[in-house]
Amino acid sequence: MVFEPLIVLVVAGGIGLMTLPGMVAVQAAVGQVVASATAAAPLVMGILLGVIFALLIVSPMSSVGIATAIGLVGIGSGAANAGIVATGLTLAVMGASVNSWGATIAHFMGSPKIQMANLLSRPKLFLPVVIAAAISGGVASLMMVEGTAFSAGFGMAGFIGPLTAMTESAGSALAVRVLVAFVVVPLAAAFLIKLIFIQKTQLIKAEELKLPEV
Questions:
Q1: How far, in Å, CA of 130 to CA of 74, rounded?
Q2: pLDDT tens, 127-153?
Q3: How far apart are CA 61 and CA 111, in angstroms?
Q4: DSSP codes, 28-84
């Protein structure tokens, strides 16, 4: 009991130090890609950022760290948030039949990273995530929902994305636009993708999204 925490810290810390240069280089490269995407037309930018942050949120990299490092604000931040929300809802809906109620909610109220092991071991699971994020990111940009560099990588966790959009966005019917961007479209995309990938084509089985029992 005394030595176990020390061993874990030494081993984990040692691995972290050894992989630090590589991880820094990768995150810097991803940051440059994200920064380049912000120069595209609004709809294209929304789609690209939605997809990029969907991939980031189920990877070992920090979506919040990258967004903060490059100062991702405005519509780009809103699109990134929408992509993360779509990722969480899609994974939650597709795996709802094999996961507990608490685990299902944790996908979007916590973080989709809980599915990281399943996605990395079954790359085909990235396809529905990318499609949902592209749709949601594009719609979010059309809805002109905005965010800050701090909120961009959070999605629905703590309601940070929607609440920030409510305070940062301008224009009329703001509540409706935020609701459409963060709830209606991502949820509709999630159920549509479940219908296509699990029920119709059976390219994906719900069991592939089962989380370990705790």
A1: 22
A2: 999 999 999 999 999 999 999 988 888
A3: 13
A4: HHHHHHHHHHTTS-HHHHHHHHHHHHHHHHTSSS-HHHHHHHHT--HHHHHHHHHHH
